[in-house]
Automatic annotation (TrEMBL):
Residue ranges with Pro residues bias: 40-50
Hydrolase is among the record's keywords: yes
Record protein name field: Signal recognition particle receptor subunit beta, a GTPase
Keywords: GTP-binding, Hydrolase, Nucleotide-binding
Stored InterPro entries: Gliding_Motility_GTPase, Gpn, P-loop_NTPase
UniProt keyword Kinase, yes or no: no
Region (Disordered): 28-63
Biased composition (Low complexity): 51-60
Organism: Micromonospora saelicesensis
Length: 251
C-alpha cells in the first residue's frame, strides 16, 4: 500500500454549490443530459462478484477458543454522505470521532448538499469496532471527505482488507475520487448507496452505469442510521475481501 497515491481530489474554487459540481471539479460540460460519471471502468475488470457459500468454521469441543482475527475495514466517500453515521450506528464501543463545528470559512469549499442539516465535519478520522463472531472482529476507520484531508487516505488504507464507499445518490460526483483511489490500490470495495429519507434519487442500475463500475463491484442500498442495515453492508465488504483472498491464493 505504500506505493498508492492519495486520491486526486480536485480543488474546488470559491462559489458555493456550483463550485462543487461535477462540471467545476472534473471539467465536464455544463449542459443538461444523463450523468456520465467517470470515463469508463478499469481496463481489465475482474470476474463478476459472486457471494461465497462456505460455512464458517466451528472450534472443536475441548479446545480453547482463539481470539478473533482483527480485520481493518475503511468507510470512505465524499463529504457529508454519512460515513460518521455509518461507523456510529454499528460500533459496539463509543466511536472515536474527530468532529469539529463547520464555520463560515467552509462556505463555497465544503458542500454537504441541499438536504443536509450537517453542522459538524470530520477533520481526521472516525473509529469503531464490531465483533462479527468468535473468529472475526472488524475495526472500522472512517476517512475524511474534504479535499484538504485527502493526504490521509494512504495512511488509513494501509493494512485494510476492504472498503465500503458510501454514496449519496443525489451527488454521485462526490464519490469518484474514492472509487478511483481503491481501484488504483487494488483494494476490494463495495459501493453502498445511503438511502437518505428512505429513498434514492436514482435506481441502482442507473447508479452503476453513472459510476462506471463493473459487475465485479457489489452495489448495495443501505441506511447509515440503521445498525442491521450497516451490518449487512459490511458483511458484503467482508465477503468481497474473502473472495479476493481466495482467488489470489488459488492463482
Amino acid at each position: 500500500m505504500d506505493s498508492v497515491r492519495s486520491p486526486e481530489w480536485p480543488v474546488a474554487p470559491l462559489g458555493g454549490v456550483a463550485a462543487n459540481s461535477a462540471a467545476a471539479r472534473y471539467g465536464m460540460s455544463s449542459g443538461t443530459g444523463p450523468i456520465v460519471g467517470r470515463a469508463g471502468p478499469p481496463p481489465t475488470a475482474p470476474p463478476p462478484y459472486r457471494p461465497s457459500s462456505g460455512a464458517a468454521s466451528v472450534p472443536s469441543p475441548g479446545k480453547p477458543a482463539a481470539p478473533p482475527i482483527p480485520v481493518k475495514i475503511l468507510v470512505a466517500g465524499g463529504f457529508g454522505v454519512g460515513k460518521t453515521t455509518t461507523v456510529g450506528a454499528i460500533s459496539e464501543i463509543a466511536p472515536l470521532t474527530t468532529e469539529a463545528e463547520m464555520t463560515t470559512a467552509g462556505i463555497g469549499v465544503d458542500d454537504p448538499g441541499a438536504r443536509s442539516t450537517k453542522t459538524t465535519t470530520t477533520v481526521a478520522m472516525d473509529f469503531g469496532c464490531v465483533t462479527i463472531d468468535r473468529s472475526l472482529k472488524l475495526y472500522l476507520f472512517g476517512t475524511p471527505g474534504q479535499t484538504r484531508f485527502g493526504f490521509m487516505w494512504d495512511d488509513l488504507a494501509r493494512g485494510a482488507l476492504g472498503a465500503l464507499v458510501v454514496v449519496d445518490s443525489a451527488r454521485l460526483d462526490d464519490c469518484f475520487p474514492a472509487i478511483d483511489f481503491f481501484e488504483r490500490a487494488g483494494l476490494p470495495f463495495v459501493v453502498g448507496v445511503n438511502a437518505f429519507d428512505g429513498r434514492l434519487a436514482l435506481e441502482l442500475g442507473e447508479i452503476r452505469w453513472a459510476l462506471a463500475i463493473g459487475d465485479h463491484v457489489p452495489l448495495v442500498q443501505f441506511d447509515a442510521r440503521d445498525r442491521l442495515s450497516v451490518r449487512d453492508a459490511l458483511l458484503v465488504v467482508l465477503d468481497r475481501a474473502l473472495d479476493r483472498a481466495t482467488r489470489d491464493r488459488r492463482a
